[in-house]
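User: Let's play a game. I give you a shape written as tokens, and you guess the letters that built it. Ready? Here's round one.
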């Protein structure tokens, strides 16, 4: 088992999109409306430093999206390979994200975390993040981005999870 010292953090490039998508299929909780080549490449094109990759011996072992809109610092898609968890990968990724935010003048970071992902709750808490139960997330699919669920339609938890990201 390696420690943080052998984890290398770098920004993703457009050529990493396929590998990142494959990694998220096995390591991330749920799916996002942006989980396609165009979505990942669009992120990298818009903000080339936002998608951070953790590699150990050339192997992708973790990701986080560290987005800054000029007002708030947002963290998404913190994912660590199942066989590499509890080895400092998430800690290294979040430290890099927080350094990025500080350099950009960010004042506070927030994270998207599924309510049911207890393992993630422990990881975020260990890095000093606190859940804010008085905030809620409101979402709306944008036109041309796939069918919106019809009002009152029954959705499976997986469908609801996908729609909510």
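Assistant: Ready! My guess for every position:
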């Amino acid at each position: 088992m390696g420690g943080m010292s052998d984890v290398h953090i770098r920004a993703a490039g457009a050529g990493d999109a396929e590998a990142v998508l494959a990694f998220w299929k096995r390591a991330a909780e749920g799916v996002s409306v942006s989980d396609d080549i165009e979505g990942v490449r669009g992120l990298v094109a818009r903000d080339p430093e936002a998608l951070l990759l953790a590699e150990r011996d050339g192997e992708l072992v973790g990701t986080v999206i560290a987005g800054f809109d000029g007002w708030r610092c947002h963290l998404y898609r913190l994912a660590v390979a199942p066989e590499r968890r509890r080895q400092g990968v998430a800690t290294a990724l979040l430290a890099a994200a927080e350094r990025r935010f500080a350099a950009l003048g960010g004042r506070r970071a927030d994270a998207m975390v599924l309510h049911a992902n207890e393992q993630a709750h422990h990881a975020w808490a260990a890095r000093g993040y606190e859940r804010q139960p008085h905030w809620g997330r409101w979402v709306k699919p944008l036109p041309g981005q796939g069918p919106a669920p019809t009002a009152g339609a029954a959705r499976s938890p997986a469908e609801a999870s996908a729609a909510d990201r």
